[in-house]
């Protein structure tokens, strides 16, 4: 006697000729603003990498002496470098904010039976960021 | 929940007559495997009543206009999880989505079956996959001892109950699967609701099965498939926060992996306060 | 025709069905158990139960008191041996569920918390916030996942019981996904399909509560019992019919008429106190509260709305903190469906059909007079609810009698030989009937929705809260006419794949049979008791009617009502008294030792 097609533990629905399987397009992330924001957030890691690479070049220039450093500083003033740095900076800020806001969901902290709101847990990160930024800015501009 | 929940319905006073207001057009995805190769849309005009939800509109169509319209529904109060559909591109419970909130935006509502599931007919999706994924994470209380009813209950303080209560609210409506792009791109990914359910048991102070579930979920198709898009939490009608559950699980999976270097195999995965251990 | 064979087959996968499946699997792990449900089990209507489940656990409480509350609440129509077994096993079942992980609400020290509930003298209702049924069903469903012997047939719609040799040998079911019609044979069948609220126009019940199991048993020759007893829950939201749980009143809500007056004090339900008093005022039994509403309405003291008259439920004095802690789902429902915040505003409510005390007649182990057929849960009538069910008794009823029926069916199945092939012929006949009457039919003209609405309207007018001979007879005639018109039904949907219109048509057929039995029983019971109130016979008549109405289907399609005396063990019938705080509970006769 036939058993109905119910398996104990399938992990993927078998292909059935009559069910319609909508095709997920390669451009799925353009369909919705939340998806686009997600992809941009992930792409911002490229911007972080760009900053790191520029910093590495800067360190190498520093090591190679004053002329190398001067050449590097000259390069930094080209429109390409300025554009690259600006775009990367914006992405890094976006990356930082989204990261700070999302990280607390991995660590729920309960205080007196109630869960502390995520933004409260994110606040220390923002404070440290602000303090460090002011300190660095003061060091450079003093 | 601390703050007042949102309400969709415009206020009306008692005694105010229910107006047969505007009509609204519903564009509904139709698909009959015996006739069609792929879905197409059909439009229906439905009267707008202040109290009507999208489900009422679908029932009106089925009862009066086209009896072949096919969809699932049962409780009509947002607790059974049957009536999930895409409404204007958003996964929603149609029993909790009011027509009046769409009546202003160009008077059209597009209703489609939940995304990323195979479509059986019209608005009905195929759920065998989802059920299998639920079962895979071993969503039952795992104990290594046996307690008989005469020995009384496991003690669990309200604080311990709160630790997993949110994750126990899942109604299995699969809106989170329709929102998660990873589910769409990688059908073997276990998915938000399943992991939230696993966390519901992991965080339950009476449970001792975290190790077994870790073996299933600390896996590329388990928690590591998640890239924290966060859409699942946004669309969840019961505020279960599956994204939070998954990130917490990732953290415990990492801690578990680190502990494996220090302690031999067979250690307790997650340390919980357990009054009965 | 394809087929498959099992030992125990459950029709319905809700609280009773899943509990019975687990019980059968635990009796004998080698049994092949099938759960055939027309929806996925977690969609079963158990999921919407909110208030709680009663079980005696506190030291100041006793089984006898729970039994007395149940029996008096049921207006002495309960079978007392069944009630005694029920109150004894209820706490064990609820504890077993706790061991399976059910998140019962707790007291600060970690023990199970209990709260007051309507009609109960002591606090004994366990609860899981205000989503008790939801948590119970999900716990049961997730627990069944670990039992390998249980095979689930999700979204298979049972259309007929296979009966041969005076014994039930399985079912015929449609696999909704593909439309194929298949015989699933089994040595024992347990009906757990729930109640029939959708027979009425205004109900808390989900779309799936069409009395399927009652009609299946009725057509197969098993009798239905006490069908005239339909419970109207006093607090349902107007238009949607969504339930506002009794827990709202247990936490201290007041019911006010249009003058802001707590009108229940006029109806022998006690004196109004600021805090809730057990078995008094708003914590009285549901039938009396609903009847009080009708009387207030007749006096013109209710508030008219476009969707019927309402009274107000006042929760404002409870405060936001308690409402968010104990009644969060109530707040959510009021806000979403009425745009009213119970913290600040009055909630409009009216009586709504909620539960069916009657059902398939079973004994204390869930067995019907038809061999091989069992029933448990709301579909069954054991009867422990009598003429009126107390709140928080039906969830433990599902567990206790689900477990009993599961064990009894497993034992029965172990003693039977396998079903023979003769039932295949019946299944082929059923397939032919479905095709000729519905799927391939041309020329019909009646629409399902219209017949359904007319049925609901006539049942409400004939078998509402108050009944009298003329309107009941009229309803009976209308229903007969609707049965004839049902033969001319036409479907728009002739497809095989997930044909929900066919399902609605079959459900309408079931509902017409169930409505017929309700109306016949209501006509024949010429007394008033509990939820069955006859304006032409307003008094309770223990002389003639301390008995269950048992209705059988005759060969010509009409029904025959007989009476079966109620089993009285230790509590002699008395007056139902509510509202008096110091009144002592009548002494029960001492327990006779079992011989």
Number of beta-strand segments of chain A: 2
Low-confidence stretches of chain C: none
Task: Summarize the helix and strand pattern of chain A as letters.
Answer: HHHEEH
Task: Name the poorly predicted regions of chain A.
Answer: 1-12
- Helix share, percent of chain C: 25-40%
Mean pLDDT of chain C, to the nearest integer, reads: 93
- Shape verdict of chain C: globular
Beta-strand percentage range of chain A? under 5%
Q: How much is the average pLDDT of chain A?
A: 84
Largest interface: B-C, 79 and 75 residues
Shape of chain A: flat
Residues in helices of chain A, as a percent range: 55-70%
List the helices and strands and how they pair.
The complex is a heterotrimer of chains A (142), B (277) and C (595).
Chain A: H1 33-63, H2 66-76, H3 79-102, E1 110-111, E2 114-115, H4 118-141
Antiparallel strand pairs in A: 1-2
Helix pairs in contact in A: 1-2, 1-3, 3-4
Chain B: E1 23-30, E2 40-47, H1 54-65, E3 84-87, E4 90-93, E5 108-112, E6 119-121, E7 124-125, H2 128-136, H3 158-165, H4 175-179, H5 181-185, H6 192-202, H7 210-217, H8 231-235, H9 242-262
Parallel strand pairs in B: 1-5
Antiparallel strand pairs in B: 1-2, 3-4, 3-5, 6-7
Helix pairs in contact in B: 2-6, 6-9
Chain C: E1 3-11, H1 15-27, E2 33-37, E3 53-54, H2 63-73, H3 80-99, E4 114-115, E5 125-126, H4 132-144, E6 150-154, E7 156-164, E8 167-175, E9 181-191, H5 212-220, E10 224-225, E11 230-236, H6 247-250, E12 254-256, H7 286-298, E13 311-314, H8 320-326, H9 328-338, E14 347-356, E15 359-361, E16 373-375, E17 380-381, H10 394-415, H11 423-439, H12 448-462, E18 466-467, H13 469-486, H14 500-524, E19 533-534, H15 542-545, E20 547-553, E21 559-565
Parallel strand pairs in C: 1-2, 1-9, 2-6, 9-16, 15-17, 18-19
Antiparallel strand pairs in C: 3-5, 4-5, 7-8, 8-9, 10-15, 10-20, 11-14, 12-13, 13-14, 20-21
Description:
Helix content of chain A is 63%, strand content 3%. Chain A is an all-alpha fold and 142 residues long. A two-stranded antiparallel sheet of chain A has the order 1-2. In chain A, a hairpin with a 2-residue loop joins strand 1 and strand 2. In chain A, helix 1 runs antiparallel to helix 2 and helix 3 runs antiparallel to helix 4. The N terminus of chain A is likely disordered. By secondary structure, chain B is an alpha+beta fold. Chain B folds into 2 domains: 117 residues, Ubiquitin-like (UB roll); 148 residues, Fumarate Reductase Iron-sulfur Protein, Chain B, domain 2. Chain B has a 5-stranded mixed beta sheet. Chain C is globular, with a radius of gyration of 23 Å. In chain C, strand 20 and strand 21 form a beta hairpin. With 595 residues, chain C is α/β, with parallel strands linked by helices. In chain C, helix 12 runs antiparallel to helix 13, helix 12 runs parallel beside helix 14 and helix 13 packs antiparallel against helix 14. In chain C, strands 1, 2, 6, 7, 8, 9 and 16 form a 7-stranded mixed beta sheet that branches. A 5-stranded mixed beta sheet of chain C has the order 17-15-10-20-21. The longest helix of chain C is centred in the C-terminal third of the chain and has 25 residues. The chains are: A mainly alpha (142), B alpha+beta (277), C alpha/beta (595). At the A-C interface, loops of A face strand 1 and strand 6 of C.
């Amino acid at each position: 006697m036939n058993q109905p097609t119910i398996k104990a533990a399938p992990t993927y629905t078998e292909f059935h000729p009559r069910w319609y399987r909508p095709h997920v397009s390669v451009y799925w992330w353009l369909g919705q603003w939340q998806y686009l924001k997600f992809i941009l957030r992930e792409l911002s890691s490229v911007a972080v990498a760009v900053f790191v690479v520029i910093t590495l070049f800067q360190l190498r220039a520093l090591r190679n002496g004053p002329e190398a450093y001067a050449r590097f500083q000259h390069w930094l003033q080209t429109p390409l470098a300025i554009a690259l740095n600006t775009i990367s900076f914006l992405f890094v800020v976006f990356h930082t904010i989204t990261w700070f806001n999302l990280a607390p969901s991995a660590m729920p902290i309960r205080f007196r039976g109630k869960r502390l709101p995520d933004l409260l847990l994110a606040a220390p990160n923002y404070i440290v960021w602000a303090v460090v930024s002011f300190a660095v800015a003061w060091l450079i501009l003093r | 929940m601390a703050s007042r929940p949102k309400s969709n319905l415009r206020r009306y006073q008692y005694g105010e007559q229910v107006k047969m207001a505007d009509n609204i057009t519903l564009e509904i995805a139709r698909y009959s495997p015996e006739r069609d190769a792929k879905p197409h849309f059909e439009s229906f005009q439905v009267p707008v009543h202040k109290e009507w939800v999208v489900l009422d509109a679908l029932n009106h169509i089925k009862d009066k206009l086209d009896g072949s319209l096919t969809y699932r529904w049962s409780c009509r109060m947002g607790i059974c999880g049957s009536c999930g559909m895409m409404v204007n591109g958003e996964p929603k419970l149609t029993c909790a989505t009011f027509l009046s909130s769409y009546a202003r935006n160009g008077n059209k509502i597009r209703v489609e079956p939940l995304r990323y599931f195979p479509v059986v007919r019209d608005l009905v999706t195929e759920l065998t996959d989802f059920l299998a994924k639920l079962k895979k994470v071993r969503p039952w209380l795992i104990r290594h001892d046996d307690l008989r009813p005469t020995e009384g209950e496991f003690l669990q303080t309200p604080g311990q109950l709160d630790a997993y209560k949110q994750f126990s609210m899942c109604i299995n409506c699969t809106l989170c699967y329709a929102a998660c792009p990873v589910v769409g791109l990688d059908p073997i990914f276990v998915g938000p609701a399943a992991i939230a359910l696993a966390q519901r048991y992991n965080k339950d102070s009476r449970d001792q099965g975290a190790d077994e579930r870790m073996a299933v979920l600390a896996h590329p198709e388990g928690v590591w498939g998640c890239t924290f898009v966060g859409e699942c939490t946004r669309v969840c009608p019961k505020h279960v926060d599956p994204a939070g559950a998954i990130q917490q699980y990732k953290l415990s999976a990492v801690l578990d992996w680190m502990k494996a270097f220090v302690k031999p195999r067979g250690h307790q995965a997650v340390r919980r306060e357990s009054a009965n251990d | 025709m394809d087929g498959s064979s099992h030992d125990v087959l459950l029709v319905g996968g809700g609280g009773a069905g899943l509990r019975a499946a687990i019980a059968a699997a635990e009796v004998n792990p080698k049994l092949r158990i099938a759960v055939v449900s027309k929806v996925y089990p977690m969609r079963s209507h158990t999921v919407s139960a909110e208030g709680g489940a009663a079980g005696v656990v506190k030291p100041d409480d006793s089984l006898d008191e729970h039994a007395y509350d149940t029996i008096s609440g049921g207006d002495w129509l309960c079978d007392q041996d069944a009630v005694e077994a029920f109150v004894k096993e209820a706490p064990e079942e609820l504890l077993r569920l706790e061991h399976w992980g059910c998140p019962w609400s707790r007291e600060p020290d970690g023990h199970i918390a209990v709260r007051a509930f309507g009609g109960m003298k002591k606090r004994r209702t366990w609860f899981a916030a205000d989503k008790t049924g939801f948590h119970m069903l999900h716990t049961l469903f997730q627990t069944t996942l670990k039992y390998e012997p249980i095979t689930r047939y999700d979204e298979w719609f049972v259309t007929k019981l296979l009966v041969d040799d005076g014994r039930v040998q399985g079912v015929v079911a449609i696999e909704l996904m593909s439309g194929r019609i298949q015989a699933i044979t089994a040595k024992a069948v347990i009906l757990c399909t729930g109640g029939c609220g959708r027979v009425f126009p205004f109900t808390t019940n989900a779309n799936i509560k069409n009395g399927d199991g009652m009609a299946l048993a009725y057509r197969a020759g098993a009798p239905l019992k006490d069908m005239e007893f339909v419970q109207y829950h006093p607090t349902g939201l107007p238009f949607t019919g969504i339930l506002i749980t009794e827990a709202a009143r247990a936490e201290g809500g007041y019911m006010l008429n249009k003058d802001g007056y707590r009108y229940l004090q006029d109806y022998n339900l006690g004196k109004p106190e600021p805090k809730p008093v057990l078995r008094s005022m708003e914590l009285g039994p549901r039938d009396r509260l609903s009847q009080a509403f009708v009387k207030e309405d007749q006096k013109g003291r209710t508030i008219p709305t476009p969707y019927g008259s309402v009274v107000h439920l006042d929760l404002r004095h409870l405060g936001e903190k308690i409402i968010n802690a104990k009644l969060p789902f109530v707040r959510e429902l009021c806000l979403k469906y009425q745009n009213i915040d119970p913290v600040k505003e009055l909630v409009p409510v009216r009586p709504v059909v909620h539960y069916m005390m009657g059902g398939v007649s079973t004994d204390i182990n869930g067995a019907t007079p038809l061999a091989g057929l069992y029933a448990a849960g709301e579909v069954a009538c054991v009867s422990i609810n009598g003429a009126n069910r107390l709140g928080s008794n039906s969830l433990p009823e599902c567990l206790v009698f689900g477990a009993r029926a599961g064990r009894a069916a497993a034992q029965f199945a172990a003693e039977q030989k396998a079903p023979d092939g003769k039932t295949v012929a019946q299944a082929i006949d059923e397939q032919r009937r479905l095709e000729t009457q519905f799927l391939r039919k041309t020329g019909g003209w009646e629409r399902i929705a219209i017949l359904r609405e007319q049925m609901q309207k006539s049942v409400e007018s004939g078998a509402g809260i108050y009944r009298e001979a003329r309107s009941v007879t009229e309803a009976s005639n209308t229903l007969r006419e609707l049965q004839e018109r049902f033969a001319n039904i036409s479907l728009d949907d002739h497809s095989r794949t997930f044909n929900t219109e066919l399902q609605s048509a079959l459900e309408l057929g079931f509902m017409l049979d169930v409505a017929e039995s309700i109306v016949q029983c209501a006509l024949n019971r010429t007394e008033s008791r509990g939820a069955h109130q006859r304006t032409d016979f307003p008094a309770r008549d223990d002389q003639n009617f301390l008995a269950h109405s048992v209705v059988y289907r005759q060969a010509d399609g009409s029904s025959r009502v007989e009476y079966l005396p109620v089993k009285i063990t230790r509590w002699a019938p008395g007056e139902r008294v509510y509202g008096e705080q110091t009144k002592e509970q009548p002494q029960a006769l001492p327990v006779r030792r079992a011989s």
